[in-house]
Amino acid sequence: MEENKPNIDDISTCKREPKDGWNQDLNQDEAILAQERQIEKEIADNTPLISEKISIETLLSEYQFADQSYQKKIYDLMKEFKFMRRTRPDGNCFFRGFTYAYFEYLLTHEEELLKFIELVDKFKDMLIKVGFMFFTIEDFHDTFLSILNKIKDKEISTVDQLLEVFNDPCLSNYLVVYVRLITSGYLQTNSVFFENFIEGYESVKDFCSHEVEPMYKESDHIHITAITEATGISVSIGYLNRGDEEKVIFHNFPDNANPKIYLLFKPNHYDCIFRN
Question: Which among 96, 100, 102, 129 is positioned nearest to 116, based on CA atoms?
Fold first, then answer.
């Protein structure tokens, strides 16, 4: 079986120094990369991976100069949701927000926590079956399971302790990587179905290696469908976008499920939101 390794190289930023003799185009490319790295550094310095709870009302100032439809939708959203947690806009916002929101939910739902731990322990078999070598995923699997067991054993029992985990770049990124791997494994396991929704790639496996497994790749409907079906974690996502509707439209994953957690999608970004 062909070895399938997760694309995790981007967890650490690779810095290269310019060399003598580079042509102008290469020097320009390096300048663009340097600018991108500077922007990423500014975001990292000023934005936590997962923020403290803040009022939904802050969205009003964020969109004060936008289309008036945003303001109407935010006021309507505030009728049912009081707080939000921002996620860092680094391409991992869906997977990080989704995982954090569910782990916070598990702090107060012990029975579900125990069932989820059993499920997570089985995911390694699914990943090996689709071609991942266990030694390439072992650290991510063990870290993910370790955090869940610490919640079970009350070593992590408060939101502040959980936020500390999710704002530790190493731990937080390991958790994100493993959720990406679960998503990839589920897509490949059910490739006959999902190949109907993929364009521009030779196979579901090819799609996963380019669009699911790498860090900092943004998520779409297919990612959300796969991870919610794989884990049974029901999420309701509200879409705050320009449109004729006066309300934020929510879509549940899986369909018709009672949501355990809520996310808010703004153009190209996901944040966690919490009902009143």
Answer: 102
Are 107 and 159 a contacting pair, CB within 8 Å? yes
Would you list the domain boundaries of the chain? 14-44, 51-275
Tens digit of each residue's pLDDT (9 = 90 or more) over 233-270 = 999 999 998 877 889 999 999 988 999 999 999 989 99
Question: Residue 39's Cα: distance from chain center in Å?
Answer: 20
Say whether 90 is catalytic: yes
pTM exceeds 0.90: no
Superfamily of domain 51-275: Peptidase C65 Otubain, subdomain 2 (1.20.1300.20)
Among 90, 141, 208, 271, which one carries the catalytic annotation? 90
User: Is 93 an annotated catalytic residue?
Assistant: yes
221 in catalytic set: no
Catalytic-role residue among 93, 141, 271, 272: 93
Contact assessment for residue 261 and residue 98, using Cβ atoms and an 8 Å cutoff:
yes
Q: Which of 141, 208, 223, 269 is labelled catalytic?
A: 269
Q: What is the pLDDT of residues 92-147, one digit of tens each?
A: 999 999 999 999 999 999 999 999 999 999 999 999 999 999 999 999 999 999 99
pLDDT at site 102: 98
